[in-house]
Request: fold
Amino acid sequence: MEEAGFSTIVLTPTYEFTRAIGIPRSAAIEYPYGRLVGQVGDREGQRKVLLKTLEVLEKAKKPGEVWYLPFTWPEDPKKTAWQPSEMSPLVKYHLEEIKGARKREQEQKDSQKK
Reply:
């Protein structure tokens, strides 16, 4: 689609994976799978997530860009009743890679603060 002139974006909790496979633009959000735009019934919160995602689509310029959306899930995901008892096979397969990428990301953020 990109080659045909259509810009694309992915809203994702696993930005490391989408970046690794070459997604042109990613809006990273730390929300649980199945709830990427927000909690059920939270129309205003969902609207905010979608508008920020579209803002990323508009402003991202370089291939592979990842923008981090400024939203925090309001409850501990480990305490939610709808969370699956086992992680997805995709996440399980890439878990060490994801942990390493998050660690490098945090180290980079920490070094920028100094």
User: Anything to note?
Assistant: Residues 89-113 form the longest helix (25 residues). Residues 2-113 form one domain. The radius of gyration is 15 Å.
